[in-house]
Amino acid sequence: MEIKPLRYLVSIAETASFTKAAHQLGVAQPAVSMAIKKLEQELGLTLIHRADRNVSLTDEGNKLYQHAKKIVQAADEAILEMSELNGLTQGEVRVGIPSMLGSYYFPPILMAFRNRYPSIALKVIEGGTWQLQKMLEKGELDLSVIVAETLPTSLQAEHLLEEEMRVVVAEDHPFSQLNKVSPAAFFNEELVMFKEGFFHRRIVDKLAEKAGIKPNIGFETNLIPLIKSITKQGFGISTMLSMVIEDDDQLITRSFDPPIWLDLNIAWRKDGYLSKANQAFLEFVCLQGKSVS
């Protein structure tokens, strides 16, 4: 079995189209169709449903797709590793960064890295930590910042920084007169929250579950400026990392009682090949984290 038709199968599965797969792979569409047909003949199985222009995998095709993803990924990593033995570099880092860190912690680090390594391209994917962790496990990212709660056995991580999650309220909110805010008091207020899948939402949901309380979420948005604006105008309260609140935000932050500290790590796959570009980025980011700690 050759690897080329497996690569075609992976692309067809992920684009649900022979035409899009061909465009993605940079080959002619008939070449993709012929390669898949030959693979089906070789295996004696139908791998793809082609009825009514809807392209989808059969059960047999889906099982082969699961293996093909791993084979193609391993082959690409082997090619990269062999290339780097000849002194060549990938020159690209695919890193996942949660929204708060992407907006407030990482920009100067990313700029400093690019200044030191101008030939390395940075592809930054912003999203929720759960989504980013899944992308990392699938090999869609090389590195990702995650909250170290329960690290999967498939991942390895390096400590980056520890940051406090704080209650955020308007300047005239009664909580501004308190030193700390209990979970019960926090959940008695209308909340402005990130959507599910983001680490700060996951922490709040777990806190509510532990307290046996259903949160009263009035607003859901992943836009940090909008969360700040709604909170500043007194339409709810929120919780954010302390680094996110700036002097001119006209917002007050208070610790939870007891305080909530997040252990933020940068992770990569144990069985994946970490290119020289990714190694350089990992070392650089960890060094910056130590200088902040």
UniProtKB/TrEMBL annotation:
InterPro entries, alphabetized: HTH-type_LysR_regulators (IPR050950), LysR_HTH_N (IPR000847), LysR_subst-bd (IPR005119), WH-like_DNA-bd_sf (IPR036388), WH_DNA-bd_sf (IPR036390)
Keyword DNA-binding: yes
HTH lysR-type domain sequence ranges: 1-58
GO molecular function: DNA binding; DNA-binding transcription factor activity
Signal peptide: none
Pfam families to which the protein is assigned, alphabetical: HTH_1, LysR_substrate
Residue spans crossing the bilayer: none
Record keywords, A-Z: DNA-binding, Transcription, Transcription regulation
CDD domains membership: PBP2_LTTR_substrate
CC annotations in GO: cytosol
Family: Belongs to the LysR transcriptional regulatory family.
Protein name: Transcriptional regulator, LysR family
Organism: Marinomonas posidonica (strain CECT 7376 / NCIMB 14433 / IVIA-Po-181)
